[in-house]
Write a structure and sequence with these properties.
Oligomer: single chain
CATH class: Alpha Beta
Radius of gyration: 17 Å
CATH architecture: 3-Layer(aba) Sandwich
Bound molecules: adenosine-5'-triphosphate, magnesium ion
Shape: globular
Number of domains: 1
Length: 238
């Protein structure tokens, strides 16, 4: 069976919430499906931190003479990341070809088993990591995470143009942190001057995730109900 669907969670803009959305979505999907996460942010991996498995090391097995990694299983999710494999600061100054090689190896040498979904947490930018993921991992679809700031919108347009060039279908946008909900209140406080993202970017908004204290402190043992509408939207189209 292998991996049925590979979904990259991406944006050219840093800090818009790719890793947070990826971890929450994977957790939500893992209730009903077999799910993996590949952390493709080689310079700044985060998933091992979000899932509280900072000191785990994937078991290395030799299969048919080839070294391979057993992913770390955490809360029913199979996870692999450079964060497990390299010393903390080792990859920080790698040039493009080493980065590309690392992403390819991480995907190919991990024994993912049969998965319904593999989510890829992409780094910010539009460079080597994106070209490698497009050519070597070939995601079935991409989710673009954005906020409603002018800068995020411009960077999301860049991401959109890049994925069009790479011919990877985009499922749509996730509007993150454009409003806040504070503990013990249902009130939604707008964080940005409201922009119509669908008009500005030309892609469908699949879900709007608020800025909350809980989402800022991801708890791998508890899934956020804010992801339910997005999950329902995604299972229709994937
Ligand atoms: N919906 C949210 N509510 C509250 N905090 C959030 C939310 N989404 C993201 N954050 C916080 O914003 C910061 C950036 O999020 P995150 O690291 O997920 O972004 P990123 O796009 O993956 O960043 P990078 O480009 O550096 O990889 C983090 O501190 C995270 O906890
Ligand atoms: Mg990230």
């Amino acid at each position: 069976m292998g991996i049925k669907q590979i979904i990259a969670v991406a944006s050219a803009k840093g800090g818009v919430g790719k890793s947070t959305i990826c971890a929450n979505l994977a957790s939500y999907f893992a209730k009903d499906f077999k799910v993996g996460i590949l952390d493709a942010d080689i310079y700044g991996p985060n998933q091992h931190i979000l899932f509280d498995v900072l000191d785990s090391k994937p078991e290395v097995k030799t299969i048919d003479g080839q070294k391979s990694f057993m992913p770390i299983k955490v809360n029913n999710i199979f996870l692999n990341s450079m964060g497990f494999i390299l010393d903390k600061d080792k990859a920080a100054m790698w040039r493009g070809p080493m980065l590309s090689g690392a992403i390819k190896q991480l995907k190919d040498l991990t024994q993912w088993g049969d998965l319904d979904y593999l989510f890829i947490d992409m780094p910010p930018g539009t460079g080597d990591a994106y070209l490698t993921v497009a050519s070597e991992i070939k995601p079935n679809q991409v989710l673009l995470v954005t906020s409603q700031s002018k800068l995020a919108v411009q960077d999301t347009l860049k991401s959109k143009a890049m994925f069009e060039k790479l011919k990877i279908p985009m499922l749509g946008l996730i509007d993150n942190m454009s409003y806040s909900i504070y503990p013990n209140s249902d009130e939604q406080i707008l964080e940005f001057p409201s922009i119509n993202l669908e008009d500005a970017i030309g892609l469908k908004v699949l879900g709007s995730i608020p800025r909350t204290k809980d989402l800022a402190n991801f708890n791998p043992n508890k899934f956020s109900t804010f992801f339910e509408p997005l999950y329902n939207e995604l299972i229709k189209v994937t």
